[in-house]
Amino acid sequence: MGGQDRGADGERQAGGERTGGERLSRRDMRGRRPRRADDRARPADGRALLAGVMVPLVTPMDRPGHPSVPAADALLDALAEAGARSLMLFGSNGEGPLLPTALLGDFAAGVAKRWRELTDGGPVLMNVTAPGTAEALARAEAVLPAGPDALVLSPPVYFHHRHDEIVTHYAAMAGLGVPVVAYNAPRYSNPLTPALLDEVTGLAHLVGLKDSSGDPDLFAHAVAAARRRDDFGVSQGAESQALDGLRLGADGVVPGVANLAPAVAVELFRAHREGRDDDARRAQQLIDEVLALHTVRPGVPAVKTVLAVRGLCPPHVATPFTPCSDEERRALLDLLAPLDAHLIRA
Q: pLDDT by residue (tens digit) across 241-255?
């Protein structure tokens, strides 16, 4: 379960090819995917894009609130070695909403380049969620030079919006020439309802959905809506329901806990795919046990504290987050000590 088998989640069979036979590993000197004039008419295969284990990466920082590519090197190396297939930057695990737009571009470019070197072109998705459409577009423009394989976008945060306003928000991304993955995170944004899912899956530039609602009925509806197209992927983002999501038809999983236990997440996906039900259940149980760290200190500070102890990421967080206290640090280490063999290591 704790083995470090790169490629174990089947990324080569699912993600080695893009539409038209274009290899994901074809990059220019800046690590960007070469774009062709007809890219806007050729959306990615979302099912291949979201297949396997995607890590919603924490954002390593060299000081509070300042993303650092060098600070990410050790963590990226360890995640690739553990078999993770793809990354999502600037989500909730990545403290994206707390990071100024001006700080996104360099980090996105550096991390994407390094990840593609480590994984022979593994996908890198970039979250551009914002309170409004103008800011989401500005964040998208900031990361486009990094050559994201897709942009990830939640409905607007803060204000409540009508159905038609949310659809318009997604439609505004059509002119960017980059595929878009919808992100349903109702804890933080307007929810994607069944009616909205039915409509946004019909937008040609949308190629997939990450659902972190934790609602099995909604997830089943999302899978059914996605299957009206042969190129629309679905990924389960609710960590405690990763296996349930795969059983319902998810193409992949995006568990935040994969920052700490990537090999366990890879094993869960691989065991499910291979029909090893007992092993898949055991992997889900291990994920649930690791998730208990949030009972000590909820959220990103706890994850970064554990990674810092393991020499993989500085403990810095973006304000108003604060690092874990010494007491919280000791409690986290005590809690996770029995699981040490399953946690990421340098």
A: 999 999 999 999 999
